Backbone:
């Protein structure tokens, strides 16, 4: 988290901010960074899946202002869950077009209980 917090204050690096917020959420708990869903202690697998689904919807959907933030959040959560070997980079990687996926991990969708 220190590497993601160092550097210029904010500065519009949504990727780094998303990654930092994801890791901070896992440690400090509270509402999910994207969904705002109330969380307990410890953060449950269901809560992580919910945040990943929200992040993937933004990151791989149509271009939007929150796309880099969502990509950083997704990367950090995947790394924390041991689904990817590398920690989040301190700057945003080059983004492929929204129709291109760069991971072999399937998009997660939460099933509605309704």
Residues:
């Amino acid at each position: 988290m220190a590497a993601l917090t160092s550097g210029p204050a904010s500065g519009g690096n949504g990727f780094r901010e998303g990654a930092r917020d994801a890791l901070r959420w896992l440690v400090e708990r509270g509402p999910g960074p994207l969904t705002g869903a109330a969380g307990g202690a410890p953060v449950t697998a269901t809560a992580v899946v919910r945040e990943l689904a929200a992040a993937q919807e933004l990151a791989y959907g149509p271009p939007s202002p929150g796309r880099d933030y969502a990509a950083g959040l997704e990367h950090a959560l995947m790394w924390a869950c041991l689904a990817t070997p590398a920690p989040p980079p301190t700057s945003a990687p080059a983004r492929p077009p929204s129709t291109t996926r760069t991971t072999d991990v399937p998009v997660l969708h939460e099933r509605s209980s309704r």
